[in-house]
From TrEMBL:
Its cofactor is Mg(2+). One of its GO terms (cellular component) is cytoplasm. PANTHER family: FARNESYL DIPHOSPHATE SYNTHASE. It holds the Pfam family polyprenyl_synt. This is Farnesyl-diphosphate synthase. Belongs to the FPP/GGPP synthase family. Keywords: Isoprene biosynthesis, Magnesium, Metal-binding, Transferase. GO terms for molecular function: metal ion binding; prenyltransferase activity. The keyword Metal-binding applies. GO terms for biological process: terpenoid biosynthetic process.
Amino acid sequence: MDIRAYLRERKTLIDAFLESYFSAPVNPKTLHNSMLYSLHAGGKRIRPILCLAAYEACVKDSTAKIEDIIPYAAALEFIHTYSLIHDDLPAMDNDDLRRGKPTNHKVFGEGMAILAGDGLLTEAFYLLSNNTQYGYHLSHSAVLRVIREIAIAAGAHGMVGGQAQDLLSEDAEPDAETLSFIHTHKTAALITVSVRSGGILADCSDYELSGLTKYGENIGLAFQVIDDILDVEGETEVIGKPRGSDEKKKKMTYPKLYGIEKSKERAKELINAAINSLETFDEKAEPLRAIAMYMLERKS
């Protein structure tokens, strides 16, 4: 399949929803502008697209459309964007560039950047729970389960816990156990729950959900391993942030522990494991398989 065309098409759907969702301004206007600055800063929308692709792979109702779950997928982008805003702050990674543009706090100040992140995180759960407007045909129990799983994946037991360990591990001697904890929590947790959420909203079987979970865990970890590699080998103009920033901040990364070549081998192993986890799925899961392969090719 033409995975680039698929990603462009799905990204267009997500972007259109994001644009319409904030058509009514948040007050004060500066907060509104700060939230939208990062939300529309050129993200690839991988997490919501994975949610849509998992839904497509599992849904049995012939009348169902992926548009039906776009609000739930978009909520994942709210959470991801909030995490980037906060991650870039001087008290965290102190980054000046994100996706080739000045980071939020460089444009709006630290206080407003913190509040923009807070606003996006909270709005995500409003969006997920707003069944009076969205997802009227979906099972309320499925929606509630998705809300619970996203909360776990995004919070102290998932992404936030990984970010905390990432900070605590700066300038520490790298070890496999700590590195695995950071990557599986900071990055893979939200990617995994994106895939699981699509399956749950499609009322997938336990067996299907197990396959989706293994897929999400493997591509989530591969995504971060590849990020670590790009920080060493990528071009600043392409990756959207200074090359070598991880080394400068003395981050614990795969190349630092294993070297570049072994890190590349590990990324390939994880991608193959992700694809193998979908062996019982039919052609409707082809986008998921293609996204996994695409990750190995990405340059940003």
